[in-house]
Amino acid sequence: MKKYVEAVLLNNERLDGRKFDEFRKPVEISYDVSNKAEGSARVKIGKTEVIAGVKMDVGKPYADSSDKGNLMVGAERLPVSNPEFLPGPPNAQTIELARIIDRGIRESGMIDLKKLCIKEGELVWNIIIDIYTINDDGNLIDASALAAIAALKNAVLPELVDDKVQWGVFTKTKVPLKFEPINVTVYKVGKSLIIDAGRDEEAATDARLSVSVSETGSVHAMQKGGSTGMSLDEVDKAIGLAIKAVKPLRDALK
Amino acid sequence: MAYNKRFDGRKFDEVREMEAKVGIIPRAEGSAMFRTGKTVAIAAVYGPRGVFPAFLQNPKEGRLKCVYDLLSFSVTERKRPGPSRRSTEISMVTEDSLKPVLDLTKFSYLGVDVYVYITQADAGTRAAGINAAALALADAGMSMKDLITSIAVGKVSDKIVVDLDKDEEDHEDGATDLPMAMSTRTGEITLLQMDGNMTQKEIKEAVEMGMKACLDIKKVQVEALKAKYKGAGK
After folding, report:
1. Measured between beta carbons, which residues in chain A are less than 8 angstroms from residue B46?
2. What does the pLDDT look like over A25-49, one tens digit per residue?
């Protein structure tokens, strides 16, 4: 299969007839997957489907960030989404998925964590984002990252009385976001660079580069995956491809 | 204080609005969503496939394995990801509730995995999960004598009711929860649990109300299967 995928790509074609820099259609985002979550969203890119939810709580800040809220991102590749995903503790690939998304949110500084401080050194908001894959038809990374951002955009703070969270009572205060970075993963298959790999293309992938792109086109986080190297030229091309290809995801988020 | 009127205005023997959809996860052999009120369950089936470790293989019959879990954000206070004592037990009783209608001899040595996740919880999650699981197994083309249909009945304050929601489970006078599942074709009860306080007479009344409700729920299940397979086999 890998040789076949490579040959098709060398012919400047893709298995499903898309262009190399084209996302599958439709890209769909819907909100309020769970009315118990502070925010939640469902993302579909083609047949790939991921849901994400935000839960909030209060707690002590870390000593090195006493005036900032805390962020935690978890991911589970649910066994419903792929016959090879099994229940049990997360494996390295699942942890990598969670960490790519965590860094895209954390290191970009998209959340104004200072506004999530309630009493410096004593009490801050904790934001916990959990991502669950529903159907894996390739490129879970981009769908998961988009679901996380959409759930954050959808999230409101719960009511706080005497420093205690009133469970189930939501305020109208949104989570303070500065901007919205979106992750686009470029897949290297043989000599070709493509985005939004479908299931068979992903299985044939030698290397990939996930690039988190803001509205202004600046890059906030990257992660290379796969056990094949990439040249500087390929990395540069991949970043350019990611910045150019992000538009349908950005439009879906509006 | 007597419970004379249900919080959401339903009759005492009335189930919440229900919805079922079959084939929601293209990658799976079979899949389904089942919603009762604000409780939403999804289920997917994989297999028959190899069983590992090999000592679990059974030459006489196939192995049915169910996993039930709540998504972390399906409940008011975040649920820690990963199995709990509660989810392990519910996984087991889900398995036991489905086995009586399945012909496991059709896939000896092999295994079928059923995964059930609750995306939004408002009481009655194991019943919704079992309803979704039964549909997913049928969608996967498993050899079955019947679907399995499940409902939670119980007592809120002094009244016997069908399909308790979370507000009713949390009633200040206390509530009794009695989840049950059955094959409506044979009348066989395949899940029966209870927590609370009821007399023998009340239990009989509640289970009879549940059996009646199951007939209506079964219709929702059958319609969902028909919606996917309309025109198939012609």
Report:
1. 79, 83
2. 999 999 999 999 999 999 999 999 9
Spatial separation of the C-alpha atoms in residues A244 and A186, rounded to whole Å: 11
Give the type of residue at B117.
Y
Contact B71 A168 (CB under 8 A): no
CA-based angle B161:B163:B169, to the nearest 5?
80
Confidence of residue B234 (pLDDT cuts 50, 70, 90): low
All residues of chain A having their beta carbon less than 8 Å from the beta carbon of residue B115 are 78-80, 87
B contact test, residue of A30, A32, A34, A51 with most B CBs within 10 A: A34
pTM, two decimal places: 0.93
The domains of chain B are located at 18-222
DSSP 8-state class, residue B144: B
Q: What is the pLDDT of residue A181?
A: 95
Q: Enter the CATH code of domain B18-222.
A: 3.30.230.70
In a domain, A115, yes or no: yes
CA gap A132, B74 in Å, rounded: 12
Give me the interface pTM, i.e. the ipTM: 0.90
Share of chain B above pLDDT 70, in %: 99
Cβ of A79 and B113 within 8 Å? yes
- Per the structure, the count of domains in chain A is 1
How many CA atoms, within 13 angstroms, populate the side-chain half-sphere of residue A246? 27
Q: How confident is the prediction for chain B on average, in pLDDT?
A: 96
Four-point Cα dihedral A142, A146, A149, A155, nearest 10: -140
Cβ-defined contact of A36 to B67 (cutoff 8 Å): no
